[in-house]
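Review form for a predicted model. The reviewer records the input and the model, then writes brief findings.
Reviewer: anonymous (R2)
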Amino acid sequence: MTIQEQINAGGEVLLPLGEVHLSAPLYINNPVHIRGNNTILVSDLGNPVIDIGPTSYTSVSRIKCINGGIYFRPRNNNSAPSFINISDLFVDSAQYAINDDWSASWMTTIERVWASVCSNGFIKNGGTTTTYNNCHASNISGRAWNLYGVYDSKIISSAFDGCVANSQPAAQFVSCRGLSISSFDFESNISKGGALIYISNCDALNLSSIYSVKNFLSPIGNNASYLVHINNSKGSLSGVSLGGIPRDTPDIADGSPLGHTVTLIITGSNISLLVSGCTIAPCRKNIIEQTAFGLVDQSGKAVILASSIYPDFGPGQN
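Model under review:
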């Protein structure tokens, strides 16, 4: 039987040892457990290596994926994927590592997945109750993380590094509800005129134990660069450490967020954030003079309940 025929039959599928070249994705539309055996799936045409349809109680694990990642196809009139587990994957040189494209999946766990040198890392549009655990995106040219319209989900013990954000965020979380991001690290990234992390129109947001180090902020003209930009969102920040900006990070303007490097900026007229126990360091020259420790409320309308915001040891750490 071919690998696709084994998948169609359901049950347990043990992939062969070594490289498997694919001209089309392996398609899953029924309960199946796929496990690699030092298996390398290579997409010869740059397609995803695995395409997940309307299935449930399915797992994919222990595979190295080259030139293609995992794709959840959009939901039509079918039931949404549920009880999906993807684990122990290394995805290299793919357009997307994990791309959930409006499948409306729920009760999904993605753990111990490393996206390396991909165009995009972890993408999810819609759906609910998804957990990302120990997931890492490195050297991503597009979005390392991009969640839109995702409800009641969490990202735990995960990171991104070595990414370059050219006037767009490296990590973006928009219109999410009940999203929790904890024990999250981002380091050695470059922002060129924008935010490394952009959060907008999120409700019941929880950011905790987030750490930034050695990230370069490079404004382009009047376009400022930020570590984190939070817009029109409600929730809490606790135990967040934003600092460690290298000394040669440029600063080219005074008196306005335009053209500046800013640690954290909070904008919009629909803001309610509880900030506690955080270390929010000033950028070079303590850029926004009217605000302490690099925290910016640009709109003047934000409701920010701030407590225990401590300065870092100063700009230019590490």
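Findings: The first strand starts at residue 11 and ends at 14.
Further findings: The two ends are 56 Å apart (CA to CA).
Recommendation: see findings above.
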